[in-house]
Amino acid sequence: MRLLALSGSLRARSSNGAVLRSALALWDGPTGLADIGALPHFNPDLDGEGDTPPAPVAALRAEVAAADALLLVSPEYAHGVPGVLKNALDWLVSSGECVAKPVAVITASPFPTGGDHANAQLRETLRMMTGTVVTAACREIPAIGPKVDPATARLADEDTLADLGSALTHLAAAATTPAP
Ligand SMILES: Cc1cc2nc3c(=O)[nH]c(=O)nc-3n(C[C@H](O)[C@H](O)[C@H](O)COP(=O)(O)O)c2cc1C
Question: What Pfam families does UniProt report for this protein, alphabetically (predicted)?
């Protein structure tokens, strides 16, 4: 089962990037990381019927289509979803690759809220896109700072790692369950 991850942070030392790398290492199967920072701003004029979409958009759509499950890992900015991630989802709304695709949403924040606003907004957008949001695989990780080992740029907190493993087990189960 192939897992494709999308990160809402472009920061080199991103704490969400550390969560994402830890998740990919735990996944039992092939994985990929979408390069959503290279996408142009969403513009329906670039995506008309019969048009060839911009190359980074076509690449993203192909990666999502080839994945059995999606993992979104993101910070929250101003109680919202980072523009780079919302932009990527906007490019996927009408093309349909997310339809019935099992998705986990994980947000990590230095604050006790764990990015709850962005988490809820991402889930709502994905439901609108008729993705299959796997609630049991979604997580809000609070106080992320000390849970990351800067030397490895991975999660170091054992409880959080165990919970991440549990979340991925739920996502994998959803990806192997045939659609009704
Ligand atoms: C402009 C700005 C707005 C932010 N707004 C929020 C917020 O609304 N909620 C929150 O939990 N964290 C907020 N943060 C803190 C981010 O969660 C923090 O910078 C985090 O480390 C970014 O994620 P990353 O480490 O994966 O890049 C904000 C940070 C910045 C720079």
Answer: FMN_red (PF03358)
